[in-house]
Amino acid sequence: MHKDKPTAAQKRLDADLWIIILTTVLVLAGYMPFQGTIDSFINNKGIHILLRLFVAAAFQFGLAGLGITIVSILRKEPFRTHGLRAKGTLLSIALCTLSYVPYIIFTLATGQASGYLPFQSVWTTREVLSSGFPVNAAGMLITATAWGFFEGFNYVVISDKINERYPSKSRWLNWGAIICAVICILIHGAIGVTLEGVIEMLAIMVIIYGMLVARDYTGNAWGCVFIFVFLWNAF
Questions:
Q1: Which of 16, 40, 57, 166 is most buried (most C-beta within 10 Å)?
Q2: Does this model's pTM top 0.90?
Q3: 8 Å CB contact between 26 and 5
Q4: Which residues contact 24 (CB under 8 A, 6 or more apart)?
Q5: What is the rounded CA–CA span in Å between residue 233 and residue 131?
Q6: Under a CB-based contact definition with an 8 Å cutoff, are residues 186 and 218 in contact?
Q7: d(C-alpha 85, C-alpha 153), whole Å
Q8: CA-angle at 15, arms to 10 and 16, nearest 5°
Q9: Cβ pair 175, 140 in contact under 8 A
Q10: SS3 string of the chain?
Q11: Is there a contact between 177 and 212 (Cβ–Cβ < 8 Å)?
């Protein structure tokens, strides 16, 4: 059976996805050999907190931000083309927040909730918050940009590219959302083995899948960014 050759647009989308993948792999490959040294630097309280935070944020941006930024520049494709617009923002935030509810219920039911604090899983967050103004304000802005905006928006761009390359007639059979949910599980090592682990894995998949379906439904990506700034690892 004859298989149609990819069109120029499809080849461009394939290239975009490979750029994002390879950029992430190269940053990770550059980090791993020096992980101990870098981690020691970031945890060295004899060095100014903003300098240590900047180094950590640079690697985070490399993993979840550099690839989509390169693609955006190469394609002359502003971030706003992926849903960073005013129209539909409140609905996007509301629907994306709903996708996070099952995980909040899970953390409460299993006693994992330790109070609300955005970015509490980032090593430097508590130290930044305990610093005086304007260090704490600048530090949280850097943190929110690297671990919040770019991590959430990274999924949006990847999902958009996948859906454009492999469109589906069904809103619920959203290949971008499905693949990004699987990627998130693999990256964060949340592959369930025990019953509790399986439930947690499914709850995380609901977050990523739900927020990306909401992004497609509303045409607005701010809800996805909201998830990673205000809710992801905040409980």
A1: 16
A2: yes
A3: no
A4: 62, 63, 64, 66, 67
A5: 21
A6: no
A7: 13
A8: 95
A9: no
A10: CCCCCCCHHHHHHHHHHHHHHHHHHHHHHHHHHHHHHHHHHHHCCCCCHHHHHHHHHHHHHHHCCHHHHHHHHHCCCCHHHHCCCCCCHHHHHHHHHHHHHHHHHHHHHCCCCCCCCCCCCCCCHHHHHHCCCCHHHHHHHHHHHHHHHHHHHHHHHHHHHHHHHCCCCCCCCCHHHHHHHHHHHHHCCCCCCCHHHHHHHHHHHHHHHHHHHHHHHHCCCHHHHHHHHHHCCCC
A11: yes
Give per-residue pLDDT as tens, 81-135.
999 999 999 999 999 999 999 999 999 999 888 889 999 999 999 999 999 999 9
Give me the residue label for tokens 């900047």: 54
Q: What is the pLDDT of residues 110-121, one digit of tens each?
A: 988 888 999 999
47, two tokens: 């060095």
Distance of alpha carbon 231 from alpha carbon 100, whole angstroms: 8
Angle between helix 66-74 and 49-63 (nearest 10): 60
CB 73 within 8 A of CB 167: no
Q: What is the 3-state secondary structure (H, E, C) of 122-150?
A: CCCHHHHHHCCCCHHHHHHHHHHHHHHHH
Beta-carbon contacts of residue 80 (< 8 Å; ≥ 6 apart): none
